[in-house]
Amino acid sequence: MHLLRDIPALAPFRAGVFVPTMGALHEGHLALIRAAAERARAERDRAGRACPVIVSIFVNPTQFNDPRDYARYPRTLERDAAACEQAGADALFAPSAAAIYARDESGRVLAPKPREEDLPEVARLPRLEDARRPGHFAGVYQVVKRLFELVRPAAAVFGEKDWQQLQLVRALVARERMPIEIVGRPTVREADGLAMSSRNTQLDPAARRQAAMLWRALEAARARRDPGEAERAGARTLLEAPIEPEYLAVRDAETLGPPDARSLRPARVLVAARVGGVRLIDNAPWPA
Ligand code: AMP
Prior knowledge:
Layout: E1 2-4, E2 17-21, H1 27-47, E3 53-57, H2 67-72, H3 77-87, E4 91-93, H4 97-100, H5 129-132, H6 136-151, E5 155-159, H7 163-175, E6 181-185, H8 205-211, H9 213-222, H10 227-240, E7 245-252, E8 267-275, E9 278-286
Parallel strand pairs: 1-4, 2-3, 2-5, 3-4, 5-6
Antiparallel strand pairs: 7-8, 8-9
Adenosine monophosphate binds next to helix 1 and strand 5.
């Protein structure tokens, strides 16, 4: 596997399958890389062309609305590189901030952070992530667009764990007219249902036990067929933990607007809460 530190080094790895991450890799990330490797193999067999698997690791400061969260985000590049290789990556792109936020001769950032009001609607709905983390999705849009322009993949693989982000990335490629297929993959969970996350290492043992209640709350909501009842059942489960939810909401899976009870459009139940000082998010198809 090749470790790529600058933009020119990317040239031999174009038109591949791309997995963008912030590192501190766990089984959830590795499942994405294995899925990418499988797609790349199928593409090589089908089209008889080289199709590299490329992973990126970049802890993007512009998507952190809390500087302390950015400062304490785990950074484990050496271990991550070994795990990437094992999972089937051909290249690991670990750029500097200077490469991502490169400037033109007049000092303007080539890929600036968009204004909130210019983001696709899916990232501007009140109450979910956008309301709780101002500037977060603008930072995500900025870095994903820049990474896509640099890596120029044929396909990119994202986790359903960050459901609203996945919908934003789909909206991004449509708006920017980027010929990149966006592939979503299911959330990988611990035995007690807790969604794997790089932030889980920050939970102390008591908070770690409590965190499993997020999944229980989603299951309680999924067992109800009325959206209002589902939200109340999920919130009750959290309050018993006791966990104060930031939100627990049933939404249209694609637009993230209110679900339309009469239509057959898929819906999703999404949750965010702080547990032991660590902010966690999760979601699942609704109803079960
Ligand atoms: P991150 O490093 O947190 O930015 O995540 C990088 C990618 O891994 C994103 O597409 C996430 O949705 C995905 N991911 C994170 N956790 C999981 C998980 N438990 N299962 C599946 N995918 C995940």
